[in-house]
Amino acid sequence: ALRIDSDFMLPFESVILYGEPYVDRCVELCWRMHIQDPPMILDFSSSSEIVDKAMFRLFTRSGEYVDFVVWPALLLHENGPLVQKGVVQPLKSKSTLKSH
């Protein structure tokens, strides 16, 4: 319904023109990974965990504990081999973890 409202859509025209095909391809890729037998796994490590450097590389700073996941790690299947390391942003310091 919002796409029909040209006044609403005008500021978002370029986003839709370029963003929609990207989102469509992302959904298609996720679907293809999911229908594999067994399905591939996107591993989103939860925050406040210790950074697993075998599974993730660090984003813009160093640290021991995960603040947030920038990009998930990709596994061939659940508990399977790593296909691509993910990226995490660590907390600045251990004291930051307590206030998190």
Outline the fold blueprint.
Elements: H1 6-9, H2 13-34, E1 41-43, E2 56-58, E3 66-71, E4 73-75, E5 82-84, E6 86-90, H3 94-99
Parallel strand pairs: 2-6
Antiparallel strand pairs: 1-4, 3-6, 4-5
Structure explained in plain terms:
The mean pLDDT is 87. The chain has helices at residues 6-9, 13-34, 94-99, and strands spanning 41-43, 56-58, 66-71, 73-75, 82-84, 86-90. The chain has 3 helices and 6 strands, in the order ααββββββα. It is 32% helix and 23% strand. The strands form 2 sheets. The chain has a 3-stranded antiparallel β-sheet, with no helix packed on it. Strands 2-6-3 form a 3-stranded mixed β-sheet, with no helix packed on it. Strand 4 and strand 5 form a beta hairpin. With 100 residues, the chain is α+β, with helices and mostly antiparallel strands. It is flat.
The H-and-E topology, N to C, reads as HHEEEEEEH
Q: Approximately how much beta-strand content do the residues carry?
A: 15-25%
Largest sheet: 3 strands, antiparallel
- Rounded to the nearest angstrom, the distance between the terminal CA atoms is 40 Å
Question: Helix count?
Answer: 3
Net shape: flat
Average pLDDT works out at: 87
What does the oligomeric state look like here?
Answer: single chain
Placed side by side, the strands forming the largest sheet appear as: 1-4-5
Instruction: Kindly state the number of beta strands.
Output: 6
The stretches of 5 or more residues where confidence is low (pLDDT under 50) are: none
Structural class: alpha+beta
What percentage of residues falls in helices of 4 or more residues? 25-40%
Alpha carbon gyration radius = 18 Å
